[in-house]
Write a structure and sequence with these properties.
This protein is of the alpha/beta class. It has 2 domains: about 130 residues, Rossmann fold (3-Layer(aba) Sandwich), CATH 3.40.50; about 220 residues, Dihydrodipicolinate Reductase, domain 2. A hairpin with a 2-residue loop joins β11 and β12. It is globular. The structure holds nicotinamide-adenine-dinucleotide (NAD). The site of nicotinamide-adenine-dinucleotide (NAD) has 23 residues, from α3.
Length: about 425
Amino acid sequence: MDEITRRAFVQRSATAAAVAGLGAAAGTAEEYTLKPVRVGLVGVGNRGTALLNTLLSLPGVSVPAVCDIDAAAATRAQDLVEKAGAKRPEAYTAGERDWERLCLRDDLDAVVTATPWEWHTPVMLAAMRAGKYGATEVPAALTMEECWDLVKTSEETGKPCMMLENVNYFENVLAVMRMVREGVLGEMLHFEAGYQHECRSYYFTEEGGLTWRGRHLAEKNGNLYPTHPIGPIAWWGNVNRGDRFVTLSSVSTKSRGLKSYAAEKYGAEHPLAKRDYAMGDVNTTLLRTEKGMTVTLYFDMCTPRPYDLIFRVQGTNGLLMVGNDKAYIDKISPEDHAWEPFAPYVKKYAHPLWKDLEAEAVKNGGHGGGDYIVVQQFVQAVRKGVQTPQDVYDAATWSAIVPLTMDSVAKGGTQVEFPDFTKGKWETNPPIPVMGA
Ligand SMILES: NC(=O)c1ccc[n+]([C@@H]2O[C@H](COP(=O)([O-])OP(=O)(O)OC[C@H]3O[C@@H](n4cnc5c(N)ncnc54)[C@H](O)[C@@H]3O)[C@@H](O)[C@H]2O)c1
């Protein structure tokens, strides 16, 4: 690393540490680069295996322990680590709380969980209490109590907890971040986004039962998967960093998609084709912020449809319709009141983080590279001993949409208040900076 790069690196680390309130990270840039990061991984199914591959692709990262209730999944993970040329990790497979033993190991810096949703908060609490950094798959929590537990435990232990919201690191999402920060769209007004992705095959087993996802959808009605769309919006809109969500109201349609899928898959007389499902097919939520922004959010995963996150990003100068590849910006777009394509803006406003990591990210991580960057960003924070870029307040705020929408839907769409997990710090927290890796 040349001297200028080294100095910039150290300065950035110090700034990040100061922002995090964790104190300046000790050590030189070279030490950070070389310092090993030891990660224990809980839940090595589909997503956990992808995260494991990404972790193994990062220099200086080792995985001394893995945990899964399914011994075959744990063995597969052990084999993967060994194949990558590292020491075979110890496996924890003794029941659904065996991650408690993993968290207590003294050779881990961080614990990452990719279990079913209901285990995310318990694993994170155990990790932080054992003095480890925590990273969880999405959503971080399912109830308000869990959201507050994450915040309180992180504050009490001084250990960061990051929800691995990979969509925040998609190339186009990062480019929009730069556009917003550079004021191209003016003052931000409104966002629209959704997790719109048919996933019905993930809800039913081949044997005629419900998977863990299916069980949640059978029993709950609200926005059960809000973090992919709200993560980017919260960063673009400085939520918890100058603004905050104050209210939310949510409504769901009738439920048809799960029942009809079960009937098609198992036959009309099958119990899963005859039972009722709580989750409405399309859930729509309206959020309002303290400073006067609004968000329309969708959860749409239960009927036949192509994937689309939408991402309408609207400011006082114009708007982007990311999913439709359309943009209109006053005095910049070539024709008055006529759309132009959005795609060229992605290159024009390429984010420095994307430029720094693109080659490795595309090679080593799914979702176009977003998976690599989110894991890399977490690992770098652990290595430097600083706050994670997505902090515990992000995790709690973005996940709280699950219980708050369930509450609002149950009350016929009544407006509910959004708690302030930052306890007032949102007013002075600085916005997420635009900077490289
Ligand atoms: N960020 C993304 O793009 C993305 C994509 C897919 C999944 N996910 C998230 O990843 C998580 C896992 O999803 P998946 O598709 O891999 O599910 P999966 O069912 O394939 O994997 C879950 C794994 O956890 C194990 N497990 C269950 N209970 C456990 C316990 N108590 N202790 C240890 N292991 C346990 C299961 O045996 C399984 O191997 C979910 O939270 C999901 O929302 C995120």
